[in-house]
Amino acid sequence: MDYAVAVIDIGMTNKKVAVYDQNLRQLDAAYKNFEPMQIPHPVTGDELDVHDLQGMKDWFFATLKEFAQKYPIRAISVTTHGATFVCLDKAGRECTPCIFYTYEPGPEFQKEFYETVGQADELQREIYTPPFSSMINPAKGIFFLQKYFHESFQHTDCILNYPQYWGYILTGNKGVEPTYISNHSYLWNHREEAYSQVTEKLGIKQLLPENYKNTYEALGTLTPQVAQELGLPESTIVTMGIHDSNASLLPYLAKDSHGDFILNSTGTWCVSMHPQGELALNPEDVGKIVYFTQTALRTPVKIAIFLGGMEFDTYISLYKEIAHTDQFPSYNPEAFNAVLQEKDTFLLPEVVPGSGQYTTSKPGILEKGKFHSLEDIKSKKSIPELFKNPEMLLAVLDISLVIQTITALQRAGMKEGTNIFTEGGFRKNKGYNQLLASVLNNHSVQLTNMEEATAFGAAMTGVMALENKSHKDLADTITIEYTDVEKFQFPEFESYQGEWIKLAIK
After folding, report:
1. Cβ atoms within 10 A of the Cβ of 276, count?
2. Phi and psi, residue 325, nearest 5°
3. Residue 451: its pLDDT value, please?
């Protein structure tokens, strides 16, 4: 083995350090969960979830040091979840809390934000960023700090996107790259490839890095202090970093042998990613959670998202808690058909309000005319009879997820002949996959075998940076297997879907 690439992979809860050889074979990996820390909201006193940056740094460094003793690591790549940034003072220290983007700042805050930066619809048309109700638009997170943490924000000398913050910790260099800055941030103008007017209206343009480089280039090499601490050569390079969804897309772009496709990447977020030749929103996209970002190759990709994995985990966890069981509900296609036939039970989305494809929907279960809100189910104030029948509960849940997936695929630009590839956590959800493949019977719907695709894509950027290779040069080292999903007859799906949509958009 000539060299190895280490990947720091940061999810919202789960963190990982993995090691790959130069042929992109995973050699080792370590995992750790980090729960959020809490601080009070300066005005309301509400608990704000914040990231444990120091705890993560300590674990990343300890793990990298351990792997450095086993493997010839010569590059480090960082990939992270989206919509997160860190404010640094002149000494390079964090000067404001790093708040979770899931916080809901409320309608008055949203109103003030758009009065400051411009109308939401116009911004979506101009810079291809949709309005979320939470702070998943990083510009909103910055505005929140300006408003409620004004004194500490005054010390800000630089604002770094999350992957580049970790790159700074390792190299001492500051920079920005396409996949993260262009991802529903409000901070980037795609057409001009420059910071947007929003950065000027917030008065932060001078706080953002000028060092703009390709995703697969090097941000720099390890500082002498970090190199000594990790037991790695100072020549070890650190790549620019990459947004996690774009990391998972990169292997498919390298293979480029499947024509028009949408990657249905499933996890906490279900992300429909459709590589495109040009930036072009449809008029009906405006106001919807539909947007463009850039791939690691600086090409456009149209995206529609919803919190499918979070929705699935929320209801399955509630079922286990209410039923006092650890047993997972079993899949029965006849239960799916019974739900579709009866059309009297519906699971409605938006576990996090305003986050998905049905932003006005109130989350909960409508059962035989009675609505059980998600909040009431969680508090045990109101429990649907559905929780006594796990097969039916799974059916109602998966049907809801499939309807949301189809909406996301359509809004991402699915057309006749578009191939659909599903990767991530839902690959193991037989009911979801069978229903999706069956109702999209004019499309090729396949499961892929990409394990830990995010870390794999990040490792690719490390190899590209070390060897000055293009993504195409790595095609022979990438194996993607595609598995057709067995289809079943669900004759009442369209009729049920129509009723579900009516309820979700009320």
Report:
1. 16
2. -145, 155
3. 82
Provide the angle, in degrees to the nearest 10, between the axes of the packed helices 333-342 and 390-411. Answer: 80
Domain of residue 207, CATH code: 3.30.420.40
- pLDDT for 257: 66
Does residue 93 fall inside a structural domain?
yes
**What whole-number distance in Å separates Cα of residue 469 and Cα of residue 462?**
10
Alpha carbons 105 and 109: distance in angstroms, whole number: 6
204 shares its domain with 65: yes
- Please indicate, yes or no, if residue 83 is contained in any of the structural domains: yes
Which pTM value belongs to this model? 0.94
**Residues forming a β-bridge with 16:** 9, 31
Q: Which residue carries 């959800």 as its tokens?
A: 429
- Block residue for tokens 């638009």: 137
User: What is residue 456's predicted lDDT score, i.e. its pLDDT?
Assistant: 97
Residues 75 and 175 in one domain: yes
Print the domain residue range for 18: 4-240
Q: Note whether residue 289 is domain-resident.
A: no
Q: How many domains does the chain have?
A: 2
Q: What phi and psi values does residue 48 have, to the nearest 5 degrees?
A: -105, 125
From residue 45, give the alpha-carbon distance in Å to each of 38, 39, 104, 335. Answer: 11, 9, 14, 46
Q: In whole angstroms, what is the distance from residue 100 CA to residue 104 CA?
A: 10
CA proximity to 76, closest of 466, 350, 454: 466
The two three-digit tokens of residue 257, written as one number: 């042998």
Distance (Å, whole) CA 128 – CA 156 = 27
Please give the structure tokens belonging to residue 149: 């943490």
Query: How far is Cα 61 from Cα 63, in angstroms, rounded to an integer?
Result: 5
Helix axes 390-411, 308-323, angle to 10 degrees: 170
Among 240, 267, 298, identify where a domain stops.
240
If pLDDT is split at 50, 70 and 90, which confidence band does 373 have? very high
